[in-house]
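Researcher: Let's run the pair from yesterday's discussion. Sequence first, then tokens, for each.
Model: Starting with the first of the pair.
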Amino acid sequence: MKAFCPGHVTGFFVIEDGSHVPEKKGSRGVGFCTELGAVAEVSETDGLTSVFFGEKHADAPVTRRALELLAPGSQFNVRIQHLAPMGQGFGMSAAGTFASCLAAAVELDIQDPKYAALRATHIAEVEGRTGLGDAVAQSIGGFVHRLEPGIPPHGELERLNIQQREVVFCIMGPPIKTSAVLSDQEMRMRIKGSGELCIRDFEGLPGFDEFVGISWVFARDSGLATEKMVKAVGALGGIGKGSMVMLGNGIFAFGDCDAIEKKLRGYGTVIRTLTTDSGPRIL
């Protein structure tokens, strides 16, 4: 069985992981889903679970944990193809795990396979501190406002009426380990202080321009944006607007994508793709 899950990029957020119930943990914030996601091919096996990223054997603790939660006692052969770089804020950990769990759930004829896959992926991500809101947003696609942390029925989210499609990314350095940021108490406090204000401002006027502008305020005020990111976003001028990818070492930008791509080549590796309103699906 083969499944796809879109990627997800966060613009601004607040960490909400204080609950003792993993389904209630997560984050509030706003982001968008991309066609650069992950494809997973899964089959049941009599041996031990094996996971491959492309042709390379992977430890993949989050994916393994999610499959255990989804189907205790079952073993699988899993091959995941990530369509965007890992550790750069594209939600690839969640995408690969979600796609794997969806394929496995359908393979095993589990009731409500999409929700079962979401639950397993979200809990595994929260436990592994690899993500707090990607899987929730990926479950519906589009530009997503995560109003309350966790998965339904505890969490609450809405798809925003934003129609922007083409987006340009520029990766400017090595991957960032999400768990390191989530474990840094000083960084958590800065994210909370800035994120609360940004979410309040966005909820007052939840449009596309506001999303990008508030994302950039958050990136700078939280201290997450690097000097190189500040220069790159500033260089966009009138051809577009952008912000930092959370939590990755790069930026996203919307506007005149041909001109943006040309401008950003001097800052790092440029990737162009489309946003998507489609959530996870069987292929």
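Model: Moving on to the second of the pair.
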Amino acid sequence: MSNIIKASIWLTLSELFFNLSGYVTHSVLGRTLGPAEYGRYGLIITIATMIVVLIGRGVPVAMSKYLSEVYKTKPLEINHIKKISLEVQAILIGLTTIIYYFLAPVFAYLLRDPSLIPLFKLSTFIIPAFAGASFYVYYFTGIHQFNVQSSLKFFRGLSKIFFIILLAMLFKTKGAIIGHALAPLSVFLLAFSFDRKNKKVLDKKLNISKDVSLDTKTEKETLPKLTHRILLNFAWPITLFMLFYEIMITIDLYMVKGLLQNDTLTGFYNASLTLGRLPFYAFYFLTIILLPKISETTAQKSNKQTKKVMSSAMRFLFMLIVPAITLLAIFAPSALQLFYGSAYSGATEALRILAVGLGFLTVFYILAFVLNGAGHNKIPMWTALGGMIINGILNFYLIPRLGILGAAIATTITSFFIMIIAIIKTEKYVSSFLNFIPILKYFITTAVIGIIASYLPQGEFIFIIWSILLMIFYFVILWLLKEIKKADLETLRSALKK
């Protein structure tokens, strides 16, 4: 378990740095471009990201699952699984990039803004660059090289700040979009160099000679072949899950633009969405750890180990996410002031609602990867499809009546619904992980610090100090309630020492 915590620490630090770089980037862009142009930029990047996630993560996630099942017991399969995955990924990326480019006028027409056509075409370059970087991230995840994965995340944070901000200052919106392609491209090139070194080490470890063919009788007996068909059969539900999920979490932004036809309100809502996803970004590393770990334990049919991993990970998640979303909701005005300036104060109430809703969504997303790792990949797909439809209907009804608050309410209701489904399905098909007594303690303790926070003065920087002090007080109360024990501290100390 200390190894998991050690990986969690490095991945948490890399995720925090990566997302800090993202918020620095958004903060600078929000001020540099202004609310209206920032709203247009947000539309382009979110739809390009949605497309690239469809292709850039579906196949790599499937590859990561198969690698996790064999990297210890049948390491000879690693190169073969990677080769098959790369071939499928290359074809899908190529076709998607071409189709996306020619659909640019359609996207602009749906948003009723022809001026977006050249920006959509320019964003085409994001797709192959992002997909290439994602492929290597999930490759290193699959073989449990979390240290390399963390290094890539750190580097991508630096490259994001450098390319996007520099080019935005020089070329405004077009420059920011080009920067979004160059940042993952630089990650891909670095990952490729890591992979070449890693392959030499792996080949030496496995004593594989370049002259040895994989078709020898001995290797046929020890190397069951992963075929393109097997990979695609597992990957297509994950791919559709990614598509439905991305549409579900961005449809509110598109409908705010389409129904209200107000770039400023679109910029406000994009700002509230970006900050509201702080909990999601902070705990995203759990998907990186849980998918390969659950794949490994379920492949070995180790129910006890699966339960141990799930209980530890979800205890950690609930312990931190409950106070995190509460403090974000209370200090929403200060967070907006810090990252975007006073011009975005109109996004305050939407952010307060989204902080809760996107907290629900974070739990759903993590459990979706647990289900994928356990082989139940169609459950997240159908749940995300249902969430996409529900969110679309609720947004269509609420946005004309309540504006951006309606979009935030719609997303929160939808997120709660799909989170409950994911919890029920995970409990049933993977492992029981809910322990209601500790969760009740988290809510009660959070209520205490929430009441205190509501009486504290807001401020552009002071809210960070308040949040740190309140979180320390939160952990002290949990210690007194014996929810945090000496064994937890010993495990953490051991992991930090390593």
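Researcher: Give me one sentence on the second I can quote.
Model: The CA atoms of residues 64 and 139 lie 6 Å apart.
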